[in-house]
Amino acid sequence: MFRGGPAGLDDSGDEPSDEPTEEPTDEPTDEPSSGIDGDTFLGPNFGLTVEWDDSTWEADDESSDEDDHLVLTADDTQLDVQTITVPDGSARDCVVANADLLEEDGFDDVTHDSEAPAPDLPDDAFGRVYRYTDSSSALDTEFLHYFECRPIEGDTFVQIGFKAPADDYEDQLADYEDVADTIEVVGPPDDTNGSDDNGNANGSDDVQEPVLEDDSFTGGVFPFSVSWDADVWTAEEQEFSEDYEAVRLLKDGNTLWIEALGGVDDPDACLEAALTAL
Fold first, then answer.
1. Side by side, which strands form the sheet with 225-227?
2. Where is the domain boundary, 163, 185, 207?
3. Is the same domain home to 78 and 167?
4. Are 228 and 215 in contact (CB under 8 A)?
C-alpha cells in the first residue's frame, strides 16, 4: 500500500504525473508469481535480493521450488545469480563443478584463464575466470566466463556467473560489479500457505524482522522490497508486527509511505485501512 505526498513516487523532484497507476487484479492466473519488481529481485526460497540498472539489463526470474535464480542479459552478455547446493562442498567446489558443466554443454577448449581480470572477492568467496569457444553458431565466438560462489550456510551457496565475448569482457566488468555489489541473502520470505497460528512460516512465535538499508527496504513477514536514491530521500523504518511493515521516505517536506498490511481481504479494504490510519 502506497501513500505519497505531493512529489508522489518521483524521486527526481519533478512534478508528479497525472497518469493513473495500475491497480492490482484479483483475477486468478496460472502463471507463477515473479520475484522481479522493476529493477529489483527477491527470491522465493532464500530471500536472494539483487538490484540492477534496467537501462542496461533485461531480467528474467527462473527460480524453482528449491532455488532462487535471476538471469540478466544485455546483447551477448549474461549474468546469472542463483542459489545452489553442493553437498559437502566448498566455495571452490561450487565454482569448479559448474565450470565442468561447460564441457558437458559442448563448449570447446575450456581452460582456466589466470591472466583475465577478475573482480575483488568478498570474504569466504571463491572466483575463477574460464575461457572457451562457442561453436554453436556459424561463427566461432570466444567467451570469458567468470564464476563466483559465496557461502550462505552449510552446503548452500550464491553462485554468480558472468559471461561475455572475450573482446568485450573487460569493458563490461564495471556493469557486472554494479550488480554484484547489491547481492544479499535476507532469509526466506513468509509463506502464507504454510504459516502457523501467528502467521509465521517458520513455525515460531518470532516475527521475522524487515531490513532497512540506506537506499533499500526488504520486508520480513511480507515478501516485498523497494529501493530509492539515498541522496534524495531520507528513510525511516516504522514499528512492525506480524500484520504490518512500512518504511517512510522524506524529502523537502514531502512524505512517501510504502506499507504492507495483513488481515485485509481486498484492495478497497486495504485502502480504507490506510486512510483510517491517516
1. 211-212, 216-218, 225-227
2. 185
3. yes
4. yes
Q: How many domains does the chain have?
A: 2
Q: Which band of pLDDT confidence, cut at 50, 70 and 90, is reported for residue 95?
A: very high
Residue 272 domain-assigned? yes
Chosen domain end from 185, 213, 234: 185
149 domain-assigned: yes
Domain with 219, as residue range(s), is 2-31+190-277
What are the CA-CA distances from residue 166 to residues 96, 137, 161 (Å)? 20, 16, 15
As given in the structure block, the three cell numbers for residue 220 are 520480513
Three-point CA angle 99, 104, 105, nearest 5°: 90
* 127 in the same domain as 223: no
Using DSSP, state whether 192 is helix, strand or coil: helix
Comparing C-alpha atoms, which of 48, 69, 35 is closest to residue 161?
A: 69
137-190 pLDDT, tens digit each: 767 889 999 999 999 988 899 999 999 999 999 999 999 999 999 999 988 776
112-149 as b/e: b if 16+ CB within 10 A: ebeebebbeeeeebbbbbbbbebeeeeeeeebbbbbbb
Torsion 222-226-230-232 (CA) sign: negative
Judge whether residue 86 has pLDDT over 60: yes
